[in-house]
Specification:
It is built from eleven helices and no strands. The N and C termini lie far apart (42 Å). The radius of gyration is 19 Å and the shape is globular. 51% of the residues are buried. It has 312 residues and is mainly alpha-helical. The longest helix is centred in the N-terminal third of the chain and has 49 residues.
């Protein structure tokens, strides 16, 4: 599962912020931050899977969203006044999207391994990229991704739980919607205020579901501690690291690095959950990663090609 990090649309504005970190880190500094964020969010996802027997999938999502919302509120202290009805409508829809994305993804990883789940989820942003660009080459990347999905499912998803596959694809669709509304929220709210408020909306929406499924289990101190760890690893820490990275890293490079999430997820699933991948599944994940990287590079190339004409 990816963290609620700034999107490419918001990255350009983030990159213009004053750079407070030392420049002597060079190019490896921000890249290292992105990798650290990716490792954090995927190992947080692996920890969430191990927590599910104690609190259930919906209970884990509730704990993650609630703790993340609390931390972001304390850190960001968003201003509540001075926003229009449209601003609040945007942040509410953003929160609904975030809740759906997390809920569907955790339902998926409760049924299928972490690596394949993230691979299927990545198809959402990839599809958004293909549709938005409308370039013929992107249909090649889409075909490559579909080939990877076909291999991942063993020619028909006979090796994966169909419900888990459906939940992962649903999470991918919500991830695409998340990207759209994250950008809109970023334009209407300063810094991370919109994210903090959207996280509160998501937490409030999921609270009844978590209580219905887990009840008093959510009050167990060990469960709360593990849920807080999931929130820190999957939301708060990666968001902070990626925000710092985007101040010194082009949005295009950031997007390419994010395409490696399925590989990181597969590694986390193997190390934490002992979820080994077959050779066919490894090839499938590699194809989806290659398709994502290709789509990002195509979009970047298109932007550079337009730049001279725009300047004239």
């Amino acid at each position: 599962m990816t963290s609620p990090a700034p999107t490419a649309a918001a990255a350009s504005s983030t990159a213009s912020l004053p750079v407070g970190a030392p420049r002597r880190w060079g190019s490896l500094g921000p890249v290292g931050l992105v990798f650290a964020g990716g490792i954090s969010v995927q190992f947080g996802g692996a920890l969430a899977v191990s927590l599910m027997p104690r609190a259930g999938a919906l209970g884990v999502v509730t704990l993650r969203l609630a703790v993340a919302a609390l931390v972001l509120l304390l850190v960001c202290r968003p201003r509540l006044r001075g926003h229009s009805r449209t601003d609040w409508g945007t942040v509410v829809v953003f929160g609904i999207t975030m809740a759906a994305m997390n809920g569907l993804f955790y339902q998926a990883v409760a049924r299928i391994p972490l690596g394949p789940a993230v691979t299927l989820e990545v198809l959402g942003p990839l599809a958004l990229s293909v549709v938005a660009s409308r370039r013929a080459i992107n249909f090649v990347w889409a075909g490559l991704a579909l080939a990877g999905v076909f291999l991942l499912g063993g020619g028909g998803f006979s090796s994966l739980d169909p419900a888990g596959v459906a939940f992962a694809l649903g999470a991918g669709a919500m991830w695409a919607a998340y990207i759209v509304f994250s950008a809109r929220t970023g334009r209407r709210f300063p810094q991370a205020d919109g994210l903090a408020l959207a996280m509160v909306v998501a937490a409030v929406l999921f609270l009844p579901l978590g209580v219905l499924e887990s009840g008093g289990k959510l009050l167990d101190p060990v469960t709360i501690a593990l849920g807080a760890a999931v929130a820190i690893l999957s939301s708060v820490l990666p968001y902070t690291l990626e925000l710092l990275a985007l101040r010194r890293l082009p949005a295009s490079t950031f997007a390419i690095l994010m395409s490696l999430e399925p590989a990181i997820a597969a590694t986390a699933g193997f190390l934490v959950l002992n979820q080994a991948l077959s050779a066919m599944e490894s090839v499938a994940i590699a194809l989806v990663i290659a398709a994502s990287m290709g789509a990002v590079r195509t979009q970047v190339g298109r932007g550079r090609a337009k730049a001279p004409g725009a300047a004239s």
